[in-house]
Amino acid sequence: MIAKKDRLNAIIWVLIAGVFITLLKFYAYYLTHSNAILTDALENIINIIAGSFAFYSIYLSSLPKDINHPYGHGKVEFFAVGFEGSLILIAGITIIYKSIVAIMHPNSISHLADGIWITTTAGLANYLLGTFLIKRGKKLNSIVLTADGKHLMSDAYTSLGLIVGLIIIKITGYILLDSILSILLGGLILHNGYQLLRHSVAGLMDEIDPKVVDQIVKILGEARKDTWVDVHNLRAQKYGADLHIDCHLTLPHYWHLNQMHDEVHSIELLMKEQAATQVELFIHVDPCLPQCCFYCAVPNCKERQTEQNSTIPWTKKNIMKNTKHFVD
Q: pTM, whole model, 2 decimals?
């Protein structure tokens, strides 16, 4: 509940700041009539629209599981990221089109010095907001906050390029450079939109996140017990801030049910303590087979048919395969 409140508060502050930054940029356009500055201002409108949708998605993703959503509502955050990416793509295409028209029908630019100072202020504000959101997103495990923060950071870098271009225009008086710069910025915006859309599709399609799997493998490997013969068929899915893990755990076949239950429970506690996020874990227990003996480290095993002569390290490759580790 606290994490939900923190996410919503972060988005609210960014929306409020975004409105003021957008007004600043449009004021700069009003003074200068620069297409490049208008490009920068239009992208900030996208920030506000996307931030509003992010606010709703964070609220929805924090709702508890119900009969229709047994895994919770966290996937909506991927929709929010995709929505933001789609808006950015549309904005990029529109900006490039308008800039091409402006090349054929150029207009005069004025008060460039004022426009440069206003754009610098707005760009710095976006940089600070982006840094804040990325830090909060990582701390609160929110892909929406992180994606929004990265977008704001890229907007700040865009503003930096814009400022350099405006300074060159002021020095050289080459007005056509304004539209050329706007096209370049539009291309960068298209790239950013594609990256967000790609991330959204990957999440909705449950594409593997290598960093998440590496973290799980590291946690299990460091806590590995002799009685954990092997772990395989590991799968991990992100649902907003929640992490769902399922895997197969090979245990001694002669253990009784209570022992197996306690061992599974210990792994659940381990993951919840060290994964730094909400974790739901499903473990299927497999009995060991005679073929496991050569890498099984269970001490004083009366059922052992072959002495242990090897230790198989747990890696992403063998933990994710749907076979015990003696199978190539």
A: 0.66
DSSP 323: S
20: Cβ contacts below 8 Å, ≥ 6 apart: 125
**How is 10-52 classified by DSSP, letter by letter?**
HHHHHHHHHHHHHHHHHHHHHHH--HHHHHHHHHHHHHHHHHH
8-22 tens-digit pLDDT: 788 788 888 889 999
- Give the neighbor-by-neighbor strand order of the sheet with 230-239: 230-239, 242-251, 278-287
Note the pLDDT tens digit of each residue in 78-117.
887 788 788 878 878 887 887 787 788 777 788 888 989 9
User: What is the average pLDDT value for the chain, to the nearest integer?
Assistant: 85
Cα-to-chain-centroid distance, residue 201: 12
SS3 content of the chain, % helix, strand, coil (to 5): 65, 10, 25
Q: Whole-angstrom Cα distance, residue 4 to residue 13?
A: 15
Domain boundaries, the chain: 2-204, 210-320
Instruction: With beta carbons less than 8 A apart as the criterion, state whether 233 and 324 touch.
Output: no
Query: Which pLDDT score is estimated for 253?
Result: 94
CATH code that applies to domain 210-320? 3.30.70.1350
Domains 2-204 and 210-320 share a fold: no
Taking CA atoms, 53 is separated from 19, 58, 78, 85, 244, in Å, by: 15, 9, 11, 12, 25
Is residue 85 within 8 Å of 193, Cβ to Cβ? yes
Q: How far apart are CA 63 and CA 53, in angstroms?
A: 16
Does the domain at 2-204 match CATH 1.20.1510.10? Answer given as: yes
pLDDT surpassing 80 at residue 53? no
